[in-house]
User: What shape does this take?
Amino acid sequence: WLAENNRDADDYGPLIDVLTAMGQSGRTYQEEMDRLLDVDQWLRSFAIQSLFGIGDNYSSGARHNAIIYIRPSDGKALLFPWDMDFTFNRNASSSLTPNTDLNRLISASPKNKRAFYGHVWDIVESTFNVDYMTEWAEHYSCFLPSEDLTRFLSYINTRRSTAVNEVNRIIAPTSYRITTADNVSSPEKVSSIQGRGWVDLHEIRSASGALLPMDWVNETTWRVQVPIDPGENIISLSAFDRAGKSLGTDSVRIIGTGLSALASMENLAITEVMYHPADPSERERAEGIFDGESFEFVELTNISDRTHVDLTGAAFTSGIRFALPSLTLEPGQRVVVAGNSKAFETRYGSTLQKVGNFHSAESNRLSNSGERLTLSDASQREIASFEWSDEAPWPEDADGDSYSLVLMTPWISDPTSPESWRTSADSGGNPGGDDAIRLLSWMAEHALVGLDGDRDRDGRTELLEYVLGSDPDIPDPFSAFDIKLESLQSDGNYLTIAFEHRLGADDFLTIPLISHDLKTWTEDVEYAGRTNLGAGMGLIVYRATLDASPFARQFIRFEMKPLVRE
Assistant: This one.
């Protein structure tokens, strides 16, 4: 037991707890190991030490020569190698599991067993093989002229073959697939999907990319829980190994006969965040509210077009901590999670649907400088998680200027990207409502049947009138775009492209394209941020990523990408 730092504060308690738990048996042993050890780290540490055939070492069955480190963040024990003088010492064909503690850990659960052999497989496929090791052996031999390190390659080759054979013998190879019956009906909001997979299977993800926690029934049978919407559900699950390589995709069809679905990233979004509200007005101070933070809120929206969403079990798990009540949202319905209900009603009225007071804990506040906000479901899967900032390219006007952050087109936008967010069109935000100007509604308001025309003959098509915030019936000078060279701290000159736009005209994304010859157009630009100009108008800024100096000329055009919901 080594205490390299703070030796005057030695605490052997955690180590004694680990050693005591190793003497337990049955279910108690398994539960204590899961509680006290980072089991997966121990199994990988054992795997790599066993492959290198280290003698006179804890991994090889000796009762000494190991480092056990207690991780401060969670108190779990980690295993590290110590005294590796006898590397490549054990017989290259010897067992992978010479340690009694390792055998007990492997035998504790199917999950542990397949994880150990999965680590062995991952290591021999990635690094512990002649193809990978030859270059390193030759490289380090250059520093040790009297040593020929390539002599160990024969050992590595034999040891690898032994490991491959043992893994295949212990757990027979099987291909990834779903075994749950297809075309079945279920009244439940969550369905258990089962399938097969070998030791190389490390992760299963849904079609949206969400990581699904796995239970292992045995060494090759996995089980995941997936939310079920009313109606037809095509559950597509993709498998990946430890290197992120795809092992295949399989799907199953389930008919949901229930009336609602549990909240998930597919049907629920964080659509508005008021993290730095304006200070209280005189009227609000007269009501006893003296802190601007009291007006914080987060808005949630059911982004499904047909599914009722049940919020049961959903909770904010970082940024703020707050468990949502059992509440069902209709398609498109919004609900506001208020920091302080009294303050919220004072500023916004009592008619908006709201839940909770997340300010019940003194420290449970949204950060004015930015932080990560995470909403999770009952199984701790992320529904939404993003980290905002009070600096560009995030909208800076949301930091105390009375505007909120608003997620544009939430059914398609990536909330982790600052380009997906703008400020609210109006001061105070728009909790419980939508300040977006939808294209089809705007066209109907102006009796337009297309977007390519120019009814007022001012040089702007109807599409540009929508995006730029002008009236298709009133001519405007075509001066919305500002292009200039800007010197950055690094050497060179870079084009900046800025243009005014209508806040809320979210159904089209305007992206500058750059060319040097009018033939090849590229998106060599980076998003630099947005500014709220007031009166429902904003300014979007892009910056070229290539220095303009080497080019005799540059051309710019704009691509309009539709984001209209079908």
Q: What stands out?
A: The longest helix spans residues 153-170. The chain is about 20% helix and 30% strand.
